[in-house]
Amino acid sequence: MSKSIESETLSTQIRDSLRDDILAGRWAAGDKLQLVALTKHYKTSSTVIREALTRLVGDRLVVLKPNRGFFVPTLSLDEIKDITELRCVSEEFGIGLAVKRGDLAWESELIAAHHTLERTPYRNESDNGELTEAWDRAHQAFHAKLLEACGVPVLIDLASTLSDLAQLYGRWAGRATRFMDRDIAQEHRDILAAALDRNADVASGLLRTHYETTLQAILKSGVEKETAERGLEKAKA
C-alpha cells in the first residue's frame, strides 16, 4: 500500500473515531477540541487530527473559529427545529421513492436492520440512563436503510448529515427524554410495517411524527439553557 493511501486510510479512521466520540457526547456543546489532547488520545499526529477535524467541519459536527481553533457546535433550538423540518420533508420524499423502487433484497436488509435495532439495549443500566452508543448506531442504520432504495445519492447524503446533527442534539438531551411517555420501539415497528406494505403516505406520516416527537423531547429538556449556563461558568473560570 502506498504512503498516500495509508495516510488517507488513517485520516478516515481518525475522522470516524472523532465523529463517533462527538455523537456519543464525549464533549459538551461549545467545548474546544484541543489539538494536543486529541493527538495524545488518538495516538497520531497533529496533522492527521487537523485533517480529520477539517473534514468534520464540512459535516457540521465541528465548528472552526478563525484564530481560535476547533469547537463542538453550540446549541440552537431554532436550528434543531429547522433540521427536523428539513429532515421530515426530505425523508418524506425519499421514503416515497424507496417503497416504489425497493426490491426484495432491500426488504430483507430492512428487516435485518430492524431486528438488530430491536435486540440492541436501548439505555445504559447506570443511573443516568443515557442512550447506548450501540443503539444509536443501530437506530441510524435502520433509518438509513429505509431510504437506501430511493436511489438518490444526494438525498441519502443529506439524510445522513441531518441524522448526525439530530443525534447530537438528542444525545445532549438524552437524560431528559427518558421521562417521555413514548413507545419508540412500536414507532419503529409501525414504520417498518408501512414500508413493507409499500404505503408511502403512511410511512412518511409516521416518520414525521417520529422525528417531531423527538424534537419535542429536546425542546422540553432545557438542554440549551444548561449549556448556556455551563458556558458562562467556563468564561468566568
Automatic annotation (TrEMBL):
One of its GO terms (molecular function) is DNA binding. Keywords: DNA-binding, Transcription, Transcription regulation. InterPro entries: GntR_C, TF_FadR/GntR_C, Tscrpt_reg_HTH_GntR, WH-like_DNA-bd_sf, WH_DNA-bd_sf. It comes from the Bacteria. SMART domains: FCD, HTH_GNTR. Residues 8-75 form the HTH gntR-type domain. PANTHER family: HTH-TYPE TRANSCRIPTIONAL REPRESSOR GLAR (PTHR43537:SF20), TRANSCRIPTIONAL REGULATOR, GNTR FAMILY (PTHR43537). This is DNA-binding GntR family transcriptional regulator. The lineage of its organism: Bacteria, Bacillati, Actinomycetota, Actinomycetes, Micrococcales.
